[in-house]
Amino acid sequence: MIELEYTNSSNLSTRWLGTVLAVQANFYQVRLDQLKVDKLEIVGCEHNLQANNLQPSTLLCTRRARLKKIGQQVMVGDRVVVDEPDWAGGRGVIAEVLPRTTQLDRPPIANAQQILVVFALEEPTLDAYQLSRFLVKAESTGFKVCLCLNKRDLVTQQQQQHWQQRLEAWGYQPVLISVHNGTCLAQLTDLLSQTISVMAGLSGVGKSSLINYLIPATRVRVAEVTGKLGRGRHTTRHVELFELPKGGFLADTPGFNQPDLTCSPEDLIHYFPEARERLAQHRCQFSNCLHRNEPNCAVRGDWERYQHYLDFLAEVIARQEALNQKADIESTMKLKIKASGRRQYEPKLETKKYRRRSRRTQHQTLDELYDDMNEG
After folding, report:
1. Considering the entire predicted model, what is its pTM?
2. Fewest beta carbons within 10 Å, which of 214, 232, 315, 337?
3. How many domains are there within the chain?
4. What SS3 state is found at 104?
C-alpha cells in the first residue's frame, strides 16, 4: 500500500498534474501523473508504485472559462493542473497551465527538448538539399537536433557508408535504421528516452511506422509512397504526443515538403554546425559579415553546404525585404474595403494638415497664451 503523509488534510483538494497529449477543438487529452500534487509527502513512493502496479490515467478535459477569458492557450506538451476529475466518465477540467520551458509555434508544442529529423534513404530518395533545409530549420529552434535515416534495408552497405561519412562532415551523427527489420532501433530508443522529442520530416519517410514500432499500442495510420511523384501521402493530421516505454514522449507532426526559413540573415550561418566550427576557430573581419564577398571572411570556403547557405541566405534576405516593404506601405497607406468587397490601399492624409483642430485643443492653446501674458 502507498503510504501518504498529509501536511494539511483539511486543505487537501483533488488536483492532479498531467501532460497534454493532444488537442482537438476545445477538448484536451491529458495524461495524469501517478500521484496527486496538492500538499502531499510521498513515503517510499517508487517502491510502492511498482509493487501495486499503478498506472497513470488519461482524461478528456476542457479548460476553465477563466483561462479562456485571459487568453491562456493550452498546447500539446503543456504541464497542466486538472481539477476534480470524473473517474467514471473519464473527464476533467484544466484549471491551470504551468509555465513553459520552451514553446514552438509551428508545430504548436510546449516543453519540447529535442528535434528528431527523420528522412528515408530510399522511397523517397534522399535529397541532400531538402535534408539540409530541414536541418537548418531544426537548428533554428535552439533544441538538440538528432538525425535519423530510415529504410537502410533498401540501399547497399556502400551507400550507407557514403551517407554516414557525408553527414558527419555536416556535423551530425546520423542513426541509420530500418523499421522493416528493426535494425538499430534500440540505439534510437536510448536517444529519445526521458525527453519530449518532436519528430519532423517529409511525408512517406516512415515516421508513423516508426511510432508504431516503438509504441505498438498506438497503431498510427500509415500509407505507401505515391508512384508518380515518389512522395509520401499525409497520414498525420494533427500534433500528438505518444508516451515511450522507457519514459519521455515523442511528438508526431504532420509531414511537409518545404519548411519556411524565418530567421534573420545574420543568424542563418549559426544553424550550420560546420560553419559554427569555423567561426569558433577564426573570426571574420566585419561583425556584420554575411559570408558572401566580404574580405577576410572566416566562413567562406570549400565546404559542401556553402552553396546551400548562399541559396538560403538569398531567400531569407528577400523575405526580410518583403516584410520591410509591407511595413512601409502600412505606415503610409490605409486599407479600404469597397462595397463590392474589393480591397484597395489609399494614401493616408497628414493629420495636422488636413484635420481641423478640435475646440478643446483651441481653448487649451488660448489658456496657455493667457497664462503667458499674465506672467509677462
Report:
1. 0.73
2. 337
3. 4
4. strand
